[in-house]
Design a protein that fits this description.
The chain is of the alpha+beta class and 357 residues long. The chain has 14 helices and 10 strands.
Length: 357
């Protein structure tokens, strides 16, 4: 049986906000599996969603390079040992030069990069010389490139702290629409940087994943409802528990039942049938929004747009299409944040000082 250490319990508690004994029990039930323990706590309504990215301490910079014709976008992450070096002008120049080199040479893997030639030398040797000069271990961790096809367009955004970068690609029905979409795509990248969507659309979600997340969502809402009942604050009514979590679950039969229920409600309220067509669309939109909360958390298209929080990104795109007289289809986006997926160092302060000495 896996030993559950105090450090494991502490880490889970810090990540989820759940009680110490709840964390210990969750780890015991999942044989010490951190991610399963997080999910178990969420299903019991005892902790918030926790991602490994919240526990990271890696340093470095993310860099973004957009080609002059907006047909190629590259994002890279290069790690350093300390935040101090990440602010070093030579390191900043290294990240920009490397990203440009990756794009110009169509490199696809880190292995290809290390074997390529930059400034007359093999990249691996070039990086070693930078390490020797800067005085810290440096690692090109990952990179990705998006290319625009016919009537396609790309853009990107790098946050001011250099720790978050986003690139995005879209296809349009003509070159004029692609040109008009450039600035809007950069705004979408800024939204993605802030809101951290994991998927493009609800269509990309797996049904088993949706069902697990629905359990966690219901448990979280029920837990909050318990607290609201206890406080009896008239300004904070209880949450309505949704029947579903994603639009992927809302098939034609379910939507028809919802519409029929709305009609029955309007009939019971004595609303004249001639005005139903003006009321039903709004109520259906409310039903869909209420039953697709997972989409608004995890998918770009389902999130409310940061620059107009009354509309989803999907609705804003539709508005732009009407305004500009053409079609825009987002095909992909990539978001890098420094340190995602890297394990946090466990050294305490005393050990860190000792290591420095």
């Amino acid at each position: 049986m896996t030993e559950i250490t105090a450090a494991m319990v502490k880490e889970l508690r810090e990540s989820t906000g759940a009680g110490m004994m709840d964390c210990k029990n969750a780890l015991s039930e999942t044989q010490g599996d951190f991610d399963k323990a997080v999910q178990l706590l969420r299903e019991k309504g005892l902790g918030k969603a926790a991602k490994k990215a919240d526990r990271l301490a890696a340093e470095g910079l993310v860099s973004v390079k957009i080609s002059d014709d907006f047909t190629s976008a590259t994002v890279s992450e290069i790690n350093s040992e300390t935040d101090f070096v990440a602010k070093n002008d030579q390191f900043i120049a290294l990240t920009k030069d490397t990203t440009t080199h990756i794009q110009n040479n169509g490199l696809q893997t880190v292995e290809e990069l290390y074997l390529s030639t930059i400034k007359g030398v093999q990249f691996e040797e070039y990086l070693k010389s930078q390490i020797a000069t800067i005085g810290e271990n440096l690692v090109v961790r990952r990179f990705a490139t998006l290319k625009a096809g016919e009537n396609g367009v790309v853009n990107g955004y790098i946050h001011t702290n250099g720790r978050v970068g986003v690139i995005i690609g879209a296809t349009c029905d003509n070159a004029e629409m692609a040109l008009k979409s450039r600035d809007f795509l950069k705004q979408l990248c800024m939204h993605i940087a802030a809101m951290k969507p994991s998927y493009l659309s609800y269509e990309d979600l797996d049904m088993a994943f949706i069902e697990n997340e629905y359990k966690a969502l219901v448990a979280e809402l029920e837990k909050e409802n318990e607290e609201r009942r206890r406080l009896k604050d008239p300004n904070k009514p209880e949450h309505k528990i949704p029947q579903f979590a994603s639009r992927k679950q809302l098939n034609d039969e379910i939507l028809k039942k919802a519409q029929d229920a709305i009609k029955e409600e309007l009939k019971a309220q004595g609303k004249p049938e001639k005005i139903w067509d003006n009321i039903i669309p709004g109520k259906m939109n409310s039903f869909i929004a209420e039953n697709s909360q997972l989409d608004s958390k995890l998918t770009l298209m389902g999130q409310f747009y940061v620059m107009d929080d009354k509309k989803t990104v999907e609705q804003v795109i539709s508005q732009k299409e009407q305004e500009w007289g053409g079609k825009i289809k987002i095909v992909d986006f990539i978001r890098f944040e420094v340190g995602e997926g890297l394990e946090k160092k466990t050294e305490d302060f005393a050990a860190e000082v000792a290591a420095q000495l």
